[in-house]
Amino acid sequence: MPNNQIASIRKYRKKWQDKVVTWFNQPARKERRRAARAAKALAVAPRPVAGLLRPVVHGQTVKYNMKKRAGRGFTLEELKEAGIPAKLAPTIGIAVDHRRRNRSLESLQENANRLKAYKANLVVFPRRAGKPKAGDASAEELATVQQLKGKLLPAAKAAAALEKVAVTAEMKKESAYGKLRLERMNARMVGVRAKRAAEAAAAEKDADDAAVLADLAQLKLDEGDAEGAQELFRKALEARQQQDEQQAGSGGGAAAAEEADSWEAWDEDAVPLPPPPPQPKKAASGGGDSWEAAAAAAPQPSARSRPAPAAAAAAPSAAGEGGEAAETLAFGGGHVLELFDLTPAVRTQHLEAFLERLCSGHAAPPTVKWVDDCHAAVVCSDPRAAQQLLGAATAAGPAAEFRLRGYADAGSGTRKLPPSELLPPKPRPKTSAAVARRLIGGALNMRLRDKDAEQQLAATRRQQRQEREERQKALDAAWDD
TPR repeat positions in this chain (predicted)? Predict the structure, then answer.
């Protein structure tokens, strides 16, 4: 309790003699401490009462590194910077620490300036009053000197200066979070980018080596050395194959391999297409050749031929069994166009954007059906829309981004597409937000009604119901007859 007052709470008075340490001799202890300080000052006079001069050091670890405190002693480098010999320093009240090392230039300069300030204000008493030595204080200085009883050169705590900066528009545009994410991504992708750069450099070197080998082989062939030229050509081919394998492993050779195996990879005029396989005859019900024999007798497709679609392959058998006519192409193919001379880099969104610019006013936009990497079929709603689209593309001339042609001039891949994939697109039916509005209003317990839309929806449903009833009546009347 402060000032030795009585404990006002009962729980503090319970066994307080055992748990509370009293201090009734505070005035006496205060007087004794004062006497001890005076005795110490008299014993060390005329030296400072605070003791030896100590350096200013930073606390250990990151937590306390920003705080300053008094150290054990000055280093030899700090004494040398201040011009004080290491053996003289302890005799004039300076603490020396031979084990400490100061690796901070800023702290070294600060302690050196501290030593210089101490040396400038230092008063050295002569050992013999009648025989002063060089550097000792004169009699006039000794007469006016006073003992320092406070702190010895206390470290000034400099307040951190705040620099005010005007916020500019460029500062507002920049995002610190975005910069941090970018730097983290760059740090994470260092190894990946270095690996890619090394692979690209190695591939370029292999390509250069292969080109050099091919040139040397051509020179040997011109000189008449066929064997040497053949050996060099073989090495160049191996180098290029190794380069292609590396690109395929990294994902770069996938497009090239797909293009090489595509339907339009060769010239149709130079290499004619194989004739279609003959249709197998219908087997007799009483026996005959089995389906295994028919499959073995059927010609096998070549490695470069494109397999027929499932719908087209199943059409003859279905027609033969059910007796129905084969499916015919709508409008005779007049509503179908073909985009040709495409590159593997072209994507579906590129073609859709190109077609949208040419036929922005059509009710039903055309659809794109890919045939292979170099050809795509454009299915319009009717032949008139197809002719308008073809005319707009032809009017653009060589400046057109892609080239179009009619179904009659299309390639064999487009003409082999089944009619089910070339159906004309239909316009999107009109929609109404009445149902969604009613559901949202019911969930929010509010009346969100659009009477016009609800009436229109009800009329549409009523008309559909009447049409169903009329069809059902007509069907019932037909069966009654």
Answer: 210-243
